[in-house]
Design brief:
190 residues, mainly alpha, Rna Polymerase Sigma Factor, Chain: A, 10 helices
Length: 190
């Protein structure tokens, strides 16, 4: 380790960023990388279950930060870097997401054409389930609604700020509570 690198280890982020912006000194960026690489990687790893995808997102985060460093205008460098990481994770996830096929009924609905209504009892049951969902704890309800809309655990965690483990727990407990509340009605509607 050079004496310059040793000197940088005691310098605050703001000063290192300023030096890098003024001089383009690669050792300044290397110091920022050393300080934040694990934090960024673990944040990306919380978004992806795949370590390789998290590593790719981490590399892309630092590449984008390097390219955009001149635009950083002060404040919390770590927070700025984590926002870049979050946006990259979301962008990469969207690129990997499989395309959803649209069937004829979906097309009719999108054009406002009538589709066959569900049977009356089924509509009552669905309404009852939605009413019971409103009585769940807000975290459980939010996670269940996002699951119904097709969001993955990772997406739900990213959008709600919960950890993936918390999302799974809220979903499991929410499903259990909802089932206990509607199982009698569901048995009658069969």
């Amino acid at each position: 380790m050079t004496s310059k690198a040793q000197n940088l280890s005691a310098v605050p982020d703001e000063e290192i960023v300023r030096r890098f912006q003024e001089t383009g000194d690669h050792e300044c960026f290397a110091e920022l990388f050393a300080r934040y690489r694990k934090k960024v990687y673990f944040a990306c790893r919380a978004f992806y279950s795949d370590g390789g995808a998290a590593e790719d997102a981490t590399q892309e985060t630092f590449l984008r930060a390097y390219e955009k460093m001149r635009l950083f205008s002060g404040g919390d460098f770590g927070g700025w870097l984590m926002r870049i990481a979050r946006n990259i994770c979301i962008d990469q996830w969207r690129k990997r997401r499989p395309e959803v096929e649209i069937d004829d009924e979906d097309l009719r609905e999108s054009r406002g054409e009538p589709t066959a209504p569900p049977p009356y009892d089924l509509r009552l049951t669905i309404d009852h389930v939605w009413q019971e969902m409103k009585s769940l704890a807000p975290e459980q309800r939010r996670c269940l609604e996002m699951k119904i809309e097709g969001y993955s655990y990772e997406e739900t965690a990213a959008r709600t700020g919960f950890s993936v483990e918390a999302v799974k727990s809220y979903l499991q407990n929410g499903r259990r509570m909802l089932w206990l509340r509607v199982e009698g009605m569901l048995a009658r509607s069969k």
